[in-house]
């Protein structure tokens, strides 16, 4: 029995999943947050809850490629500031998954993403100057890190949709392209790996889902290579606009689906 028969999907549906996997690779090395489209494709082709378990190992493979590409650009003080709040958000998200249905999940996460996009646009338009990453060590900066961290942990656990939340945080903290990509690469590798036992415990990851992952992960590589090529040809302003646009699209598709 092949993978498509095992999951009862057609050739066109597998092609859609393959494209979504390619887009994950692109998002990990170019426009973080663009993989919200992948989230929508996986949820459309597969059962909604099962799709999160299938997508998680694909995301981890993409994180490994991103770390290999941008490992020298990570800003570790920011990462250490975020992790405790993210851990709390993952726990809250796990509890939420135990009782929330798909409609509540989509509405909640979509609203959060749109709110984060609006706040980031407002902050960047009213700021007198760009902040450096180290400037978020103030009391207000620590509070912001905790708030985004909890939201990021919650959304990544519930629907693998933490990318846009963290994108909004890193943009608001003044990260440039390579620092943004290097910091988010390590962040999501660590967070996504830590989610594996939770997802397995909820029955979202099993032998059947891993078999489909093996068939899809090969499509990550061309997407990641294209992203690495493209990111050096995108200026900072366009990069930020693309990240915010991807966040808005992701939030809208969750609310309207």
Q: What would your notes on this structure say?
A:
The chain is an all-alpha fold and 257 residues long. 80% of the residues lie in helices and 0% in strands. It is built from 12 helices and no strands. Helix 2 (11-29) packs parallel to helix 11 (220-231) and helix 4 (48-70) packs across helix 10 (207-216). The longest helix has 25 residues, at 102-126. It is globular, with a radius of gyration of 17 Å. It starts with a helix and ends with a helix. The mean pLDDT is 82.
Whole-number mean pLDDT:
82
Using only C-alpha atoms, the radius of gyration works out to 17 Å
Measured between the Cα atoms of the first and last residue, the distance is 32 Å
Helix-strand sequence: HHHHHHHHHHHH
Largest sheet: none
**Low-pLDDT ranges:** none
Strand content: under 5%
Counting DSSP H or I runs of 4 or more residues, the number of helices is 12
Please count the beta strands (DSSP E, at least 2 residues each).
0
Percent range of helical residues: over 70%
Could you say which overall geometry the principal axes of the C-alpha atoms support? Answer: globular
The structural class is mainly alpha
Quick recap of the structure?
The protein has about 260 residues and is mainly alpha-helical. The chain is about 80% helix and about 0% strand. It has twelve helices and no strands.
